[in-house]
User: What shape does this take?
Amino acid sequence: MPDLKQASLLDISDRAVGDERIALTGLDMEFVVCEDGLRIPSPRRWRPVRTIPYREITHFASAAYGFWLGTRRDIMSYRRGRFRDPNGPERLAEGISRAIARQPRGMEQLARISQIHGFARRPTPQRVARWFSLVCVLVYLVQYRDPFIEQVAVLNPLLVDAGQLWRIVSANFLHGVSTFPVHLVFNVLGLLALSILVERPLGPLRTAVVMGASGIAAMLSSYAVGHLPVMGASGIVMGLAGAALCLELHHCDRLPVWWRVPRRPFIVLLLIEAVMGFALPFVAGEAHLGGFVAGYIAARLMAGQAVMLRPPAAWIRRLAWGFAVLAGIALLNVGTLVLRESDALTRYARQVLATPEVGPGIDNEIAWRMATESDANVEQLLAAQELAERAADRTEYGDPTILDTLAEVLFVRGDRDGALRIIDQAIRLTRGEDYYVQQRRRFVGERAFDDRPAPPLPWALRERELLDELDPDGILI
Assistant: This one.
């Protein structure tokens, strides 16, 4: 927060007001405090000077930086070095205070500005976005080590319909994995920057409601459109942008000028982002729009009480903690699957089996992991075999990678003859590729049961895919 200096309200109404001029560096550049308003220099050549009526001024203050001025439509700041007089910011603040005091209801306006100063001096730690960003970073590290988390946490409307409701929440924590985490970095920077504009006036509980509502609205918008798959925190970023715009449009007269955002440039940036969101094929524009609208509405419902310095109502506290609980439940569901917990994997497999629209890649992936990466029980292996057989049927037993999974499941279940029959077909399709030959040696006992050969290149490449044939490129928001 700036080191503030504000003119005293005592006795300023008794001091004479004349045209006071505070010069700036540059030719004919100056502030003029006069009876009809504050005349300020303008960078526009066709209007070198403009006059701001005093009733339009919402907040002003001198600080170590220089001078801040907020109106109902704009915010301005001037470095101290731009003033010819080193005490120019203080002289300007005193002159504006005297001029406002002479206006009708001017003392009420100055009292409101003093209240804004008190608002600005309150401790305003930004916690919610920082904690959310930290969780996103931790989830990204898990993604980098174990791509399976993308399959079980990304928004997939088909599997949401099958009962995997946690995806509506968990997809907000995922980001595209790459050598440099561009997707994650941009979203985290957006979260931290916009949360400063939102959490200082609204507080942590109201900000949590804005972020929770935005994240769910963003994913529900993508769910309604049917994109496959969708992941990323951009919907929450846009929700914070919507809340910041709401505060600027409806409550700028209650906010310190340095807590506000330049209105016109901000709206232009939002319009550009909206166009890009719907124009770029790998961006879910409807998720951005859903998050923005939810954030705006949430802030509209709560900001009035916040800027009046009233504590959050009971429903806001309950809603904030409710969103936190939902996030915990979603991450817990994903965590049990990532840890390859047998019962969780079995339930997951049954839900996938109940969704015939998913592609064979998803069937094959979960079947392989159930057979090779957990302590599989009989029920789990039975579900894995059903998935592998369905994937093989859909590919007409012509994909050696899927045949390898089916053979592996049969072998783990104890059906060695069935495993040999399937792996022999894979060997024929690949003209004797060594990996499948070595798998056969395992099945006949020439290699140890757990001495699985290194996977061939296609399998290794598939580890980084989002594993959805309906939209293999994926949608990052």
User: Anything to note?
Assistant: Residues 342-446 form a domain with the Serine Threonine Protein Phosphatase 5, Tetratricopeptide repeat fold (CATH 1.25.40.10). The beta strands are 4-5, 20-23, 30-34, 37-41, 49-52, 57-63, 66-71, 75-79, 230-231, 475-476. The chain has three domains: 4-116, 128-330, 342-446. The chain is about 60% helix and 10% strand.
